[in-house]
């Protein structure tokens, strides 16, 4: 019995399935690379797609994706310029235990609108840690309702 046969006996169905999927993925990649090589050698899209075994429309899609992948796609551009980024870093250093809402209010004062998810990403990319607030404290409207319901006679000790 060879090592290959021993490996096949020890593998489960799911691991065999994942290996099979990886092989299929690499076959598709090889077809795409072959298509791009044919296009670069001067073959038309119709002929290259028929040689590789897929439709002309898929061939144009491969060309479009190839052109787009050469561009730097790192998400949408940041609204913060370098001076605003320095101001934000200084603010985060001064107010070290901060929450996402504090940073959001600070950015809104600077006329920059970000959602909380984007602010979390910016803070994580800068290498800072933020404090997570309890959900009851995040909701401003809940605070207003609680304050309205408290009687003036009751003293909080």
UniProtKB/TrEMBL annotation:
SUPFAM superfamilies the UniProt entry points to: Homeodomain-like
Protein name: Transposase
Organism from which the protein derives: Picrophilus torridus (strain ATCC 700027 / DSM 9790 / JCM 10055 / NBRC 100828 / KAW 2/3)
């Amino acid at each position: 019995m060879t090592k290959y046969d021993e490996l096949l006996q020890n593998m489960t169905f799911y691991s065999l399935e994942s290996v099979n999927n990886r092989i299929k993925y690499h076959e598709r990649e090889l077809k795409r690379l072959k298509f791009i090589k044919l296009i670069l050698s001067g073959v038309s899209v119709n002929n290259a797609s028929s040689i590789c075994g897929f439709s002309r429309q898929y061939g144009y899609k491969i060309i479009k994706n190839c052109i787009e992948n050469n561009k730097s796609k790192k998400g949408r551009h940041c609204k913060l310029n370098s001076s605003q980024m320095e101001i934000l870093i200084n603010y985060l250093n001064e107010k070290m235990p901060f929450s996402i809402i504090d940073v959001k209010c600070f950015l809104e004062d600077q006329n920059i609108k970000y959602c909380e998810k984007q602010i979390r990403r910016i803070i994580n990319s800068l290498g800072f840690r933020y404090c997570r607030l309890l959900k009851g404290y995040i909701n401003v409207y809940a605070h207003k309702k609680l304050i309205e319901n408290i009687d003036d006679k009751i003293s909080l000790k």
